[in-house]
Each structure stands twice: as C-alpha cells, then as structure tokens.
Write a structure and sequence with these properties.
This protein has 15 helices and twelve strands. By secondary structure, it is an alpha/beta fold. It has an eight-stranded parallel beta sheet with strand order 8-7-6-3-2-1-12-11. The radius of gyration is 21 Å and the shape is globular.
Length: 388
C-alpha cells in the first residue's frame, strides 16, 4: 500500500513538473515577444491602471498614532515605493469599518490611524491626496460601505463610540465564521444608503480624489443568510446606483469602481449583481475582480488554469465593454499551498498574470496589498511585473 501510494505521488509530481515547464515556456514566449511589450507600452496611461491597495491593515502597522511630520514622511516613502515599481494609482482605505481616516461629520475616527479614535491634530486624507498628486499618482478613496466590525474586538470598539447608538436602528449584529460577533449596516434600509451616500458626498466635496472604490464586502456570510440572492442583489443595487449618480453629479470626471470576489458565483451570492453592473449603464465605471489564484491549481479533476479561466469568465460578462482591471495577490508570492502550487514554484506569477489578463482585454491591475512592496520576498515578482 505504501509503495503504491509513493508511485502515485511520483506520477503526480511528474505531471505537475510537465505543467510547470509548459507554463514557463508559454510565459517566456509571451514576455519576450516584442509585439506584446510594444502593445503594453502603447496603452494610454489613464486606461492602463497600475494600482496598489493600501489597506487599513497596512495603516495599522505603518501609520498608526503618528504626528503630522512622521505621517507625511512615511506616506511619502510609501508612495515612492509605489512609483518605484511602475505603478500610477493608489487605492487607499478611507473607511474600513464605519470609520473615517479624516475628520468626518458622519463617522468616528478610525482606530487604524488613532488607537483611541482621537483627532490626530491634522487631516490624514488631505495629506495623502496631496502627496499622491505631487508624485503623479491617481488617488482613489476605498470604502467598505456596510461593515462596522470584523470580530469581537472591533465590535466592542465600535459599540464604545456614540455612533453605535446612532446607527443601531439600522445595524445588523451577526455571528461570523469562527463564532465572532460582528456588526454591519443593513443594506435593506434607506437610512443605510443615506448614511453611506452622505459620507461619499463629504469626501467628494472636501478632497480632490480621483475615484471612489468599493471592494467585495456586501452580504458576507452570516450577515443575513435568510435572504435569497435576488433580494440581496436588489438591496445592493439601490446603493450602487445611488452612489454612481452622486459621484457623477458632484464630480463627473471622478470614477466609481468595484472590486468583487474573484469567483463570479461567490460574488453573486454576496449580493454583487455583477451581471447587471457589467451590462447596464448607470452603476459603475470599471470592474476589478480579485483573481487571487495561479494557473497551477490542483482540484479533484486535476490541475486547472484557475487564473486564466476566471479572467476569461469576467471578460465574457463585460457586455458594456467597461474598463476591466485585475486584482492580483501580491501577498501570496512564495507562499506554500497544497492546492495552489504556482505561488511557490515560480517568481514571475504576477507578470504572467498581467500579460494573460491584457490578452483577454483587461486594462490594468491592482496589487493587494502595500506592505508586500516592502518585503524582500516580493522583489523578484515586482521587478518582473514592472517591465510590463
């Protein structure tokens, strides 16, 4: 029995090696092709978005509890890293959990900039936008519209603010995976939509942002599992349409884009009506699916080209021919996975993925997330990607 198992494993390893070698040859053909590189360089800068997400997770480690001088210095250095690797856009968390990375009339200060939610004595968002534009970077304000907390600790933190009582009539308290108690604004309520839209108006009227950006947190697991998918989509669509109209009425040249979960079926189950958004005007300016897999992905059926297949699936949905950007998993470089073998076996996954996406009609990418720009383990991947 043991020998037989070892023999099967050897056969599987040989099969994986064949796929790896084939992938390397295909990649070499793509990236060394002068036609491919010429086309990449010829893409207009305003379409060929090359972005980096700067998450609340990055802020908590790199920007929390700094005075104004320290904050300016660190943000400037972060943007220098973004530029160094050939990117032209930052997508920065300004509202991660019913909070604000700026002085707001609608939300409390974020604990990810100020541990005790106190005013730091300066306007972080103003500084971040100003420095981005000085370095010729586009700045998109990233908002999680519904989420108020993500675990017991952040739930207790939000409940300790006076805003909890204000939001409570239209707040859902639910048990997430692992039994953590979380809070979210109820997408079915008009009060929720009004609050979110007022927060966006505040940003657009006070700051020279180039875009408003939502990610994939809509109806997360446990939040309202009794609702069918059609009802979830209907509730979310009311918000998305209202946000789009608000953005265009205040700042017509500002974009509104969404970055949903990379599996289209999962995105739909969370209330993201991706089919409507990509086929009907009046919802979004661009889509940025988070396609966080490689093309050497092991399933019960064998090795699948998960990245390419998911990229193609999203491309097929794009009936409006809107700009498509691909979300890439910078945080997964050189990680070991029993199923997603590509990350550990290659140092040019991101470049290969970007070239593949461009061939399917995508107009750029975003990397999740910033902190990996400062990690030595990601340097090779980033340098390969920078060439395109």
């Amino acid at each position: 029995m043991v020998r037989k198992g070892k023999f099967k494993m050897r056969k599987q390893h040989k099969k994986i090696l064949v796929y790896l070698l084939t992938g390397i040859l295909l990649f070499s053909a793509l990236v060394l092709s002068p036609v491919t590189k010429m086309n990449a360089e010829a893409a207009p800068q305003n379409i060929n978005k090359k972005a980096c997400w700067i998450s609340f997770l990055d802020m908590e480690v790199l920007l929390q509890d700094k005075n104004e001088t320290e904050f300016r210095t660190k943000v400037s250095a972060m943007y220098d890293n973004v530029v160094k690797y050939g990117m032209n856009t930052v997508i920065v968390h300004v509202r991660a959990m019913g909070d604000a990375m700026y002085p707001s009339n609608y939300y409390p200060w974020s604990t990810y900039l100020s541990t005790n939610r106190s005013n730091p004595g300066y306007d972080p968002l103003q500084i971040m936008v100003e420095l981005a534009h000085k370095k010729n970077l586009q700045f998109e304000a990233w908002i999680n519209p519904y989420r108020l907390s993500r675990d017991n600790k952040t739930t207790a933190s939000f409940k300790a603010t006076p805003y909890y009582e204000l939001f409570r009539p239209y707040t859902i308290e639910y048990k997430a995976s692992g039994g953590q108690i979380c809070l979210a604004l109820d997408p079915a309520r008009q009060e929720t939509r009004d609050l979110i839209v007022n927060g966006i108006k505040e940003i657009l009227n006070k700051y020279d942002v180039d875009g408003i950006h939502f990610d994939d947190y809509f109806y997360v697991s446990g939040m309202a599992d009794y609702l069918d998918i059609a009802s979830r989509k209907a509730n979310v669509n009311l918000l998305i349409s209202q946000v789009y109209q608000t953005v265009k009425s205040i700042k017509p040249d500002c974009t509104f884009g969404i970055s949903p979960a990379g599996n289209p079926d999962n995105a739909r189950s969370q209330g993201a009506d991706i089919d409507t958004w990509l086929s009907t005007p009046g919802y979004i300016d661009y889509m940025m699916p988070q396609i966080y897999w490689t093309d050497i992905y092991v399933t019960s059926r064998g090795i699948e080209r998960m990245f390419s297949d998911r990229c193609n699936a999203w491309s097929q949905l794009n009936k409006q021919d809107l700009p498509l950007y691909v979300g890439l998993a910078l945080y997964r470089v050189k990680t070991n996975s029993k199923s997603d073998l590509g990350w550990a076996s290659s140092n040019n996954n991101l470049a290969y993925q970007y070239v593949t996406a461009k061939q399917l009609g995508y107009d750029g990418y975003a990397l999740f997330r910033y902190q990996w720009l400062e990690k030595d383990i990601a340097v090779e991947e980033l340098n390969y990607l920078k060439a395109y």
